[in-house]
Design brief:
nine-stranded mixed sheet, alpha+beta, 13 strands, two-stranded antiparallel ribbon, globular, about 25% strand
């Protein structure tokens, strides 16, 4: 008995901002001289990102006096604190999450919200209680006795943990239909302190939401396509635990992201991949496609260099990075949606996926396509 992803939906806020406009915003925010502005420009030019999304329009404004969330002064004071940021999360996250759910089920008329038995919510960019899980039950008309699980503050790999939990549920209960909803508003936590970590983090992160239906594969006979959840493997690299972090500060959440992260992935991903493949009873040659979390262009390149596959086999990750940036835990689900909808998808092909986060944690999985796109 196996479980599968039978539908995926996505949503983004209304503010779609060109990467170059965000660069100019950051030059103002960090108050950079010409030399440092040129250094920052190289980071943006090599990011692989063309557009990002935010619930805050300020990142696209040319003048700080047009700001609506950050201060209207040259130094963006008064700079919003954690309370203001999480209040905006509470105001906007559930609506964005419900848009993703509606996108997930709109073309699957056989998926009725009353039939959903479990709800798993994923987020690391905001929290409140009662939270988005209860708000989604009310907004979507889900059963009030639905079983709810919240995966919080696990970073970019949170959705892989949600897929594992959903897999466990569906294997234990063949009648289960699990809805996973990831919503991340990363741009709420913009930090203006002039550090390299902030330069890098502010060049990558974006806002988005994704929703997934996971159910027993025997329930999907009428579906044209789905992704079987085959095998999972997780490992954290203790030697790199200080290279990536996500902390609650007085002015929102603070990201630590050093240049060593991509080097650690380059060093260790081969070993982790081998353990996953051994667990699945597969060889590397059995893998046709890849779904690597696009935490940044260097991370994608590190995975490719270590494992020896081409960027073409990982094109869904590059396209997601280009069009959306890094939306933390929601991003890998955007990648999977592109793979699932790919018209060149082949029946039975194996997909190797990774996501990374604080720890340094590497979550890995193997999916198998059923049906052609």
């Amino acid at each position: 008995m196996s479980s599968c992803i039978s539908a995926i939906g996505t949503a983004n806020p209304k503010y779609r901002i060109p990467q170059n406009d965000i660069y100019h915003f950051m030059v103002k925010a960090f108050r950079l001289d010409d030399t440092n502005a040129s250094r920052l420009k190289r980071i943006y030019d090599h990011s692989g990102i063309e557009h990002r999304y935010s619930v805050i329009p300020d990142f696209g404004e040319k003048e700080s006096n047009n700001n609506t969330f950050f201060g209207k002064t040259a130094d963006f004071e008064p700079f919003p604190g954690t309370r203001e940021r999480l209040s905006l999360y509470q105001e906007t996250a559930t609506d964005l999450a419900s848009e993703a759910v509606n996108d997930c089920i709109i073309n699957h008329t056989e998926i009725l919200t009353p039939s959903i038995t479990h709800l798993i919510t994923v987020s690391c960019t905001g929290m409140h209680a009662p939270g988005i899980d209860i708000e989604l039950v009310e907004k979507l008309g889900l059963n009030p006795n639905i079983e709810r699980t919240c995966i919080n503050f696990m970073g970019c790999y949170g959705s892989l943990n949600a897929l594992k939990v959903a897999d466990y549920i569906c294997r234990a209960d063949p009648a289960a239909k699990v809805l996973i909803v990831s919503v991340e508003l990363c741009t709420l936590h913009f930090q203006k302190e002039n550090t390299l970590d902030n330069w890098v983090a502010n060049s990558l992160f974006s806002d988005g939401a994704a929703a997934v239906i996971v159910e027993n594969s025997t329930e999907t006979k009428t579906r044209n396509k789905y992704l079987l959840l085959d095998t999972f493997y997780s490992e954290f690299l203790n030697e790199a635990k200080n290279e990536m972090g996500w902390y609650v500060g007085d002015a929102g959440f603070e990201m630590k992201l050093t240049s060593k992260v991509s080097r650690m992935i380059l060093k260790h991903i081969q070993s982790i991949s081998n353990k996953l493949l051994n667990k699945a009873g597969l060889k590397f040659k059995d893998i046709s496609r890849f779904a690597v979390h696009p935490g940044g262009r260097k991370i994608l390149e590190a995975a490719e260099n270590a494992l020896g596959f081409s960027s073409i086999a990982n094109c869904s990750a590059y396209e997601t990075l280009r069009d959306y940036g890094n939306m933390s835990s929601a991003t890998i689900l955007f990648v999977l949606k592109k793979l699932m909808d790919d018209p060149e998808g082949i029946e039975g092909e194996n997909i190797l996926g990774f996501a990374f986060g604080p720890g340094l944690t590497v979550e890995s999985m193997i999916l198998k396509r059923s049906g052609n796109a």
